[in-house]
Amino acid sequence: MQATLKSNVVFSGTGLHSGQNVRMTVQPASANFGIWFRRIDVIGKDALVPARWDVVEQTALCTRIVNDAGVTVGTIEHLMAALAGCGIHNALIEIDAEEVPIMDGSAAEFVRGFLRTGIIQQGAPVRAIRVLKPVSVERGDARAELVPDRDMQMEFHIDFEDAAIGQQTKGITLSNGSFVRELSDSRTFCRQADVEEMQANGLALGGNPAENAVVFDGDKVVSPGGLRHLDEPVRHKMLDAVGDLFLAGAPILGRYRGVRAGHSLTNELLRTLFADPDAWCFEDCTPEMAARLPGAGVHFGEIPAVA
């Protein structure tokens, strides 16, 4: 069945790019509501923004959504990944700024808040999106594709010139709490040169290598404490993709493959999928199918201790 939170969960923190202080409340919502944001700092125009693939603004550095009134919410991908990974299908998110707080740079604090508060089932079945035939998009040496599969599967490959990152490849079946155990605590990352360039352009103003990001410089990990996983970068790329794919509006039954893919390419992939009515269909989940979806059976003890 569909699920929502038992009660409100409040998060406070800093916007990664804006540097603004942010307060955000994730609230329960009725069955079939979906995921919506409400900008409570916006007066005099529509402040509701749907968390949906077709309202994503193209941006390389984060996922940002915008409604018809021009109201935006940015850096939503980690929160969306936590909702997907915990199996939360319906929620209203009230936020007093233009950007979701970055927290520790991963999805772990969102997951912890959701599981501590509790998740309840609702009186409507989960509708999943089944991939019926392969679809893919390419941009330069980057590629993303969805192919039919029994469950939600993910494979990702990254390749960076920095020796501390290098080439990394990982595959995962997104069921039985695997998102929470294996991906949720992996933090956003960048190169030292990128930090300097972003901040010179008024971005990453809330970034802090000691608190909310992993920074690499050649063969060195600049951030104190080092890595949580030897392959933390590719795990974080997968975390991002889980969040970006949840903008489909339902869990996806299919295999996602990403090669050097980012936010905009994953969104382009969803647009390509939904543009072809022969490539997908909705499917009401049987109990056996639902038991294999992300978030099914997840519990608080699965959150990595390091997070």
TrEMBL record:
Residue positions binding Zn(2+): 78, 236, 240
EC number of this enzyme: 3.5.1.108
BP-aspect Gene Ontology terms: lipid A biosynthetic process
Pathway: Glycolipid biosynthesis; lipid IV(A) biosynthesis; lipid IV(A) from (3R)-3-hydroxytetradecanoyl-[acyl-carrier-protein] and UDP-N-acetyl-alpha-D-glucosamine: step 2/6
Enzyme class: hydrolase
Record key words, sorted: Hydrolase, Lipid A biosynthesis, Lipid biosynthesis, Lipid metabolism, Metal-binding, Zinc
Alphabetical list of Pfam families matching this protein: LpxC
Catalytic activity: a UDP-3-O-[(3R)-3-hydroxyacyl]-N-acetyl-alpha-D-glucosamine + H2O = a UDP-3-O-[(3R)-3-hydroxyacyl]-alpha-D-glucosamine + acetate
GO cellular component, one term: membrane
Cofactor: Zn(2+)
InterPro entries membership: Ribosomal_Su5_D2-typ_SF (IPR020568), UDP-acyl_GlcNac_deAcase (IPR004463), UDP-acyl_GlcNac_deAcase_C (IPR011334), UDP-acyl_N-AcGlcN_deAcase_N (IPR015870)
Molecular-function annotations in GO: metal ion binding; UDP-3-O-acyl-N-acetylglucosamine deacetylase activity
Keyword DNA-binding in record: no
Catalytic center residues: 263
Classification via HAMAP family: LpxC (MF_00388)
Cited NCBIfam families: lpxC
Stated family: Belongs to the LpxC family.
Name of this protein: UDP-3-O-acyl-N-acetylglucosamine deacetylase
